[in-house]
Specification:
Layout: E1 7-10, E2 13-16, H1 19-30, H2 48-68, E3 73-78, E4 81-86, H3 89-104, H4 116-134
Antiparallel strand pairs: 1-2, 3-4
Helix pairs in contact: 2-3, 2-4, 3-4
């Protein structure tokens, strides 16, 4: 994996978040020559509130609906072979992420790399997917959750 050095533009100059680490990398790894590839930031990272809603409400509701529908286990294709796994919240999370990945043409969806907008798109897709395929309604987030 290539190292990444975040920066922002101020008054036409690149201001790196950790110039000390960048300097060490350039001096000790690149030696005298190298090149830089720039990538636009995807925006702010997903929030803990988004992840809490996703796991505590979205995945939990989908899991409970699958259990209510009589599913104790699920057969899925792993590395070209059918495997039967017990239905757990982790397996439901994988099913939901896989459905989302297929809908956007991605091989895999990793929440650790998601921006706030990416996470919002995942949650919106999963809510619609659950309505269509599980016939369940995912509750809205509780905006007063801190008061309870």
């Amino acid at each position: 994996m290539e190292p990444q050095f975040a920066f922002k533009i101020e008054a036409g100059s690149m201001i790196f978040d950790r110039p000390d680490i960048l300097t060490i990398y350039v001096e000790n790894v690149l030696y005298e020559r190298g090149y830089i590839t720039l990538h636009k930031s995807k925006g702010p990272s997903k929030t803990n509130e988004q992840l809490a809603y996703y796991y505590a409400v979205v995945v939990e509701t989908a899991f409970q609906q699958m259990i209510a529908d009589g599913n104790d286990d699920i057969t899925i294709l792993i590395a070209g072979r059918e495997r039967t796994l017990p239905l757990t919240r982790d397996v439901v999370d994988l099913i939901l992420k896989d459905a989302y990945a297929k809908s956007i043409g991605a091989g895999k969806v990793l929440k650790r790399n998601m921006s706030k907008m990416d996470c919002m798109a995942l949650i919106d897709f999963v809510i619609r997917w659950c309505a269509k395929y599980l016939h369940c309604v995912i509750p809205e987030p509780d905006t007063n959750w801190r008061d309870s």
